[in-house]
From TrEMBL, chains B, D:
It comes from the Bacteria. Gene3D superfamilies: MetI-like. Belongs to the binding-protein-dependent transport system permease family. One of its GO terms (cellular component) is plasma membrane. The chain crosses the membrane at residues 14-37, 82-106, 113-135, 198-217, 237-255. This is NitT/TauT family transport system permease protein.
From TrEMBL, chains C, E:
Belongs to the ABC transporter superfamily. It comes from Rhodoblastus acidophilus. Keywords: ATP-binding, Nucleotide-binding, Transport. Residues 4-241 form the ABC transporter domain. PANTHER family: SPERMIDINE/PUTRESCINE IMPORT ATP-BINDING PROTEIN POTA, SPERMIDINE_PUTRESCINE IMPORT ATP-BINDING PROTEIN POTA. SMART domains: AAA. This is NitT/TauT family transport system ATP-binding protein. The keyword Nuclease does not apply. One of its GO terms (molecular function) is ATP binding. Pfam families: ABC_tran. PROSITE patterns: ABC_TRANSPORTER_1, ABC_TRANSPORTER_2. It comes from the Bacteria. SUPFAM superfamilies: P-loop containing nucleoside triphosphate hydrolases. InterPro entries: AAA+_ATPase, ABC_SmlMolc_Importer, ABC_transporter-like_ATP-bd, ABC_transporter-like_CS, P-loop_NTPase.
Length: 328, 272, 248, 272, 248
């Protein structure tokens, strides 16, 4: 049924900072008003909690990665649609070794990372690239908030993490980046995901989201872009330089057309294939999942990966297209 | 003379009190200097100057965008949450604790339940709390209340138990109803004890506050600490920790002061 | 009128028989002294008179009617300790009974009526010799002062029966003499029936109009739980003391 | 009869005790059923069957990769950390608390310092702890000790203070040295009080344990809760929380039992 | 030998003068009773004899030597309350003094020597009439039993001087009589000088060989801080009681 007010959860991460800025700068209100709805944009300090809240139904949309969408809301039966593909990580996530500059040296080491996160996925892909598997290392779950401090202790020799922690850790003389997400471009996507039913019933909500996003993108590219970025830097606890360096390793789709092109490309299907087999491997597709096909994924071209009767994750480029066509 | 009987003079006493504080400061300064000599950009143990600078920026420079003085906004947000939550917890403890302590029926109904609930780790139940109460102030306050109130309730019920049975009998011979006994015998004697209980809860309350702010918030001392922790910005974290410590210490002292002032009979009654 | 009739009262606690077949009648205005060795059940008996606990068998009548099953304002009490409220001043302690009577909801009186009650309470405090201590808290008073205060507090509510459980046991002998005299004066002047437990036989003879002695006839360990204490002696004091007729 | 004097019969009492537990269970079942009717895959409030299934998998099926029974490995790891840490905290509290309580010089030196330290939020100082102690068991145990010991020390020093001055004088007239007074007068009287203090610390200790395990670990109840929280596996989290509650409750009961058994004189001495 | 000499002792607490110019000499084996109104400084004086606190002016000599500035085993004490250790049984309480003497490190004796000490302690317990209570904890004993135990405990260490601060003030009169007799027996048989504070003049006359009365001559409120109590009376008991020579 149609509703009037919507709640969007976002968490502090370079690719999502525009949402906070859009809320503060009145862009959210402008677009909500335009469609005659109310949108509340709520900031989370803790990414996991924002996903949980969305999965439990307290929020209509959330900023999330493609992998976490599949493992949590989708595996939890919440049919979710990626309304906006905002960026992909292009070096923002990295495998870092202490004192060794070859990835192969990771063999046998303890690797500190946030288990079941994109870092874990990145590690799996990195190991694949040198014909190893997770059996060759020992994973130690470590909270992202403490990763920077953890790296400074002597018993930590390998970490996989994301920005800003990556640049924090790389500030250390003996820290060597041996693999990063730019080597698997496009595989770690930062999305705006909304509840499919809500989008179906209220297309205006999704349109407003797209409108907000691309107006904010324009702002960042435009004349007062520096001020906008400065505000985002501050909100994420750093300064402009720090923020710019994080942006540099993020492939932000400033133009909707680029995002549409990416979303409709074949690469997304290939990526999701990697992702779902990784998740199935880790038993994260649900306890009853018999294969990686258990949860269906509908791509932008309506092709379905896996179980077509249980589609819970959809890529939908139509709203970005509307933005690209200026029809919002 | 036995060491036990040896009392330091006032001057010695002050010196002794200051000693561990100075020692801690000295140890910090030495290690900080060592690390900074090794790597001038070391963030783990920043120099005092760096900390002062960080605090100055946060406390005395208005945020250009919002015009807010972040340090004070954080402090105000945290204290507000803390005080509201502790107020609620205290109220709950008073009502339920008195009920359990005075009425056998309520004791049967709630005593064991509260005992079990007080053992549950509230942090692990956060997702449910957030769903039930939303992500606003309500859930942060609720976390503190849920974390502190059961312990306070148990404590207070125990304190009511410790009142001599004779007082209740005596009150009845003076014609008191159950309600009057609660109001004129149990309640006024519980108020100063409630302050003790509140003082003990200050530590856990701060803990829960920081935990709640770390997860979902956009201001507060705990929020800031966790935000800048990603950058290992100890130059902000350490002053914030010191500030929290000071705030907690002052609240504690204030509570002791209120107790002594408002309940002049209590110190003597407790001693005997 | 406040006569007490005790009819074949037995009391068992757990599986121990504490009191066994106690019967006696007590006329109004008597000053009964209850004596007996430690552990023989004097306090237990007083607690039954108070209504805190009920006899296992038999019954107790107050003015011909069964005793209410819980304490009420007809029966005042002074315990050996813990008889006054530590959070109230002397004046507040004495006023409490009247305040509870007149303010069912708040238990506190304000305004002009408070003034009246205060005067009444002050008069009682003066009677027990605490006129200079009205603003003191119990913790600031000696044991003797606290027991006087407890007396004044109990009297404020004008009970018909006053129960005293070794009220002066913990006091110094000198202070004890004073307070005994006070006790006799009060009994003499107020319409009270008094039941007082004591360990001190000389006190019993000095104050009472009648002395009841409880005793365990069989006190070997194996008998202890199977036989309770009985009423061993019932001694009227001669020459008879009569309340209101007596000069001390 | 006044409500205050109305005691439930044994049967009524049992019914009253059970009531809030049953009510909580009923509320859970209703909401869980409602949500599951809406979305059979709902993760927030799983059905009891799902929870049983999840626990069965963890407790009775060896993990295919490591061959370990995860539930028991977690329990063992957590309990080990908890007990070692509480043992250390108790030892520290005993030594320092006695020193502060008995010796005026140590009181001057440490009393205020411990008071200030007990107010500091230890979670915020974790980075420094890591550097000092590494990321292994030591830092987790240290976090619990730092979180619990200052409060226990303060409590114990207060309890020593509460011993009648006369006891110390008396012991001196019996020829006791300071050391003998500590050993034969203060220490034995503090042991049962230490158990009280330990019981009060159980709650915070679990809290710190969970927090520590959430930060860097590869086993433990807190680790598992935070790990599976990533995909909102409440079917694991809720049984784990219940299990922690049970463990805490049992430890508490065990401590009470030990206190009553080992210190038969204490109950009476405390009452008087 | 354990003679006490008090030379012009003054004691101020805060800015209040509590005791003023007290001088007297006490021969060995005397049984001195200290009396006086409440608050006149009896306890304060005893605390000076104990060494807990020092005179502001003047000095106190024990056997001709200045009193050590802290309590020691030559001076035993029994307080009105808190005189025994709640965590030790009766036997443990009595043995403590001997154990502390013989085991400086552990304060605890084991093995054969322990047996010997136990017998000694049992004998003392029997002397104070507690032979059947040796395994009881103080909380399980009545006030009178606790004070007897405190006496036995103090005697175990064989002090030269025994200080007693209203040791029987809180006891019932019957029990009090027994323990007074016991006290006199002990004084009679052990080489003790006794100083005892009491509120009870009849007790003072019954037990003492000499009675000292402290008094505040000027006791108006404005004088209270400026003048302390002085030695008002010094009454030797006639016929003289002499320790060891006397039959009770
Ligand atoms: N709550 C109770 N539980 C078990 N036994 C009790 C209880 N109260 C009293 N008793 C027993 O009842 C008997 C009488 O006790 P009570 O206190 O009435 O004696 P008493 O005559 O007042 O003694 P005292 O002179 O020492 O005060 C005692 O043997 C005691 O053990
Ligand atoms: N620690 C103290 N601080 C301040 N004043 C004190 C202290 N101890 C005693 N005093 C004062 O010293 C005076 C004497 O007190 P002390 O206890 O020696 O009297 P006492 O003769 O033993 O009285 P009582 O018979 O009541 O025991 C009192 O006026 C009291 O107020
Ligand atoms: Mg009794
Ligand atoms: Mg005294």
């Amino acid at each position: 049924e149609p509703k009037k007010s919507f709640k969007v959860a976002w968490s502090i991460y370079v690719g999502w900072m525009p949402w906070g800025y859009a809320a503060d700068a009145g862009i959210v209100k402008k677009w909500a008003d335009k469609y005659g709805i109310a949108i509340e944009v709520k900031q989370f300090n803790d990414y996991v909690e924002s996903i949980n809240q969305y999965t439990a139904g307290a929020y209509d949309a959330v900023t999330i990665t493609n992998m976490d969408t599949l493992s949590t809301p989708s595996a939890g039966g919440v049919d979710s649609t990626a309304v906006i593909v905002g960026d992909f990580s292009n070096g923002n996530d990295a495998v870092i070794l202490k004192g060794k500059d070859k990835l192969a040296a990771i063999k046998g080491q303890k690797v500190n990372l946030v288990e079941f996160s994109v870092s874990h996925y990145l590690l799996a892909r990195a190991l694949e690239s040198v014909k190893m598997s997770e059996k060759d290392v020992k994973v130690v779950n470590t909270s992202d908030a403490d990763m920077a401090a953890a790296y400074k202790t002597s018993d930590v020799t390998a970490v996989v993490t994301w920005n800003p922690i990556v640049s924090e850790v790389l500030g250390d003389k003996d820290a060597k980046k041996v693999f990063d997400s730019s080597q698997i471009p496009g595989e770690i996507m930062d999305l705006m995901v909304a509840n499919t039913q809500v989008v179906k019933d209220n297309p205006n909500f999704a349109k407003a989201l797209a409108g907000i996003w691309y107006e904010t993108m324009d702002k960042m590219a435009g004349a007062d872009g520096k001020a906008a970025k400065e505000a985002m830097a501050k909100a994420s606890g750093t300064d402009l330089a720090g923020f710019e360096s994080q942006l540099a390793s993020t492939k932000l789709f400033a133009k909707p057309a680029d995002a549409v092109a990416f979303a409709e490309s074949k690469d997304v299907g290939a990526t999701m294939n990697h992702v779902r087999s990784f998740l199935f491997d880790k038993a994260l597709l649900g306890k009853d999942a018999k294969s990686a096909d258990a949860v269906g994924i509908e791509l932008a071209d309506k092709k379905v990966l896996g179980d077509a009767k249980n589609v819970k994750f959809r890529f939908d480029a139509s709203f970005m297209k509307l933005a690209a066509q200026g029809k919002l | 003379m036995r060491l036990l009987n040896r009392k330091p003079t006032r001057g010695q006493e002050l010196a002794l009190i200051a000693l561990p504080f100075l020692l801690t400061a000295a140890v910090y300064l030495v290690f900080s200097a060592l690390r900074l000599a090794d790597n001038p950009n070391d963030k783990l143990l920043p120099s005092p100057a760096a900390m002062v600078e960080a605090v100055r920026t946060l406390a005395f420079h208005a945020d250009p965008r919002t015009g807010a003085y972040i340090f004070w906004v954080d402090t105000f947000a945290s204290l507000q949450r803390l005080f509201v939550a502790l107020g609620l917890a205290t109220g709950l403890a008073l009502v339920i604790g008195l009920a359990i302590g005075v009425l056998p029926v309520m004791r049967a109904l709630l005593h064991d339940f509260v005992a079990v609930v007080s053992m549950a780790p509230p942090l692990a139940l956060l997702p449910i709390l957030f769903i039930a109460l939303g992500l606003g102030e309500a859930s942060k306050i609720a976390l503190i209340v849920i974390g502190c109130a059961p312990v306070m309730i148990r404590d207070l019920a125990l304190r009511v138990d410790e009142l001599p049975r004779e007082q209740f009998l005596k009150a009845q011979t003076l014609g008191a109803s159950t309600w009057q006994i609660v109001l004129r015998v149990a309640l006024p004697q519980m108020l100063p004890r409630l302050i003790d209980s509140l003082r003990l809860s200050l530590g856990p309350a701060w803990l829960f506050l920081i935990a709640a702010e770390a997860i979902a918030s956009d201001s507060g001392l705990g929020y800031r600490i966790f935000l800048v922790r990603r950058y290992l910005a100890m130059d902000t974290i350490l002053p914030y920790v010191a500030w929290i410590t000071l705030l907690a210490f002052v609240s504690d002292a204030a509570l002791r002061f209120v107790q002594a002032r408002a309940f002049p009979w209590f110190a003597a009654a407790r001693a005997s | 009128m406040s006569a007490i009739k005790v009819e074949k009262v037995w009391k068992e606690i757990g599986d121990q028989i504490v009191l066994e077949n106690i019967s006696f009648e007590l006329a109004s205005r008597e000053f009964l002294m209850l004596v007996g060795p430690s552990g023989c059940g004097k306090t237990t008996f007083l607690r039954m008179l108070l209504g805190e606990t009920a006899p296992t068998r038999g019954r107790i009548l107050l003015d011909g009617e069964p005793l209410p099953a819980e304490p009420d304002s007809r029966r005042g009490i002074v315990f050996q300790r813990y008889s006054v409220f530590p959070h109230l001043t002397a004046l507040g302690n004495v006023m409490l009974g009247a305040e509870l009577r007149e303010a069912p909801l708040l238990g506190k009186i304000f305004g002009a009526r408070r003034k009246v009650l205060q005067e009444e309470a002050r008069a009682l405090l003066a009677e027990v010799g605490l006129d200079h201590a009205e603003n003191k808290y119990p913790a600031e008073m000696s044991g003797g002062m606290q027991q006087r205060l407890a007396l004044a507090q109990a009297l404020m509510r004008r009970p018909k029966v006053l129960l005293l459980d070794e009220p002066f046991g913990a006091l110094d002998p000198g202070i004890r003499g004073d307070i005994q005299a006070l006790m006799q004066k009060i009994w003499n002047e107020s319409p009270l029936t008094v039941v007082m437990v004591t360990h001190d036989l000389s006190e019993a003879f000095r104050l009472g109009t009648r002395i009841l002695a409880f005793e365990r006839r069989r006190d070997r360990p194996e008998e202890k739980t199977r036989y309770g204490a009985t009423l061993a002696q019932d001694i009227p004091i001669w020459p008879r003391r009569i309340a209101g007729a007596l000069k001390i």
